[in-house]
Write a structure and sequence with these properties.
Elements: H1 4-11, E1 16-22, H2 26-30, H3 32-43, E2 53-59, H4 71-79, E3 84-87, H5 96-112, H6 119-122, H7 128-138, H8 143-147, H9 155-169, H10 179-196
Parallel strand pairs: 1-2, 2-3
Helix pairs in contact: 7-10, 9-10
InterPro entries: DnaJ_domain, DnaJ_subfamily_B/C, J_dom_sf, P-loop_NTPase, Small_GTPase
Organism: Cathartes aura
GO molecular function: GTP binding; GTPase activity; Hsp70 protein binding
Length: 198
Amino acid sequence: PLSPQVRNEFYKDTQGVILVYDVGQKESFDALDAWLAEMKQELGPHGNMENVVFVVCANKIDCTKHRSVDESEGRLWAESRGFLYFETSAQTGEGINEMFQTFYSAIIDLCDNGGKRPPSSTGIGFTKEQADAIRRIRNSKDSWDMLGVKPGATRDEVNKAYRKLAVLLHPDKCVAPGSEDAFKAVVNARTALLKNIK
């Protein structure tokens, strides 16, 4: 990374940004939010992040043994912000050409569209509520936490919380990356809790 003094020169008139993290280093993935915040700050009140093409590269996918950020987590982070997402390996070259071709095409579309991202590229097929629920479920520490009920909740409370999440995340209705796993986790959490509630 360049020093902030040098970096801020790059932010003016930016049309495209490639955010790269190492799939084996959770910290590099967690740092993406800070990079975005810095960019927003450098662009100032008149800068518009909507008019920049963002690509998120999950890099080092060749190191499968040490992977700590899975595809659905990275894809959800990117797509919930309207960013393009690619799985790449600088080592083997996998995904690199496709990523650059898509990136350049998106920038050309941006220029053809008067410097604004064409609406189609930002249309995501899932809601913030769905994305937030998947993240919360992924990070929950136990079944109670997963359903968002307090330990000792009644059968009815568990079922009500379950129904709300099941409707939100059902794979037939929800296209957010990771929704299928989140839905299964919610089904299992409900089963586990109901076993122990008399």
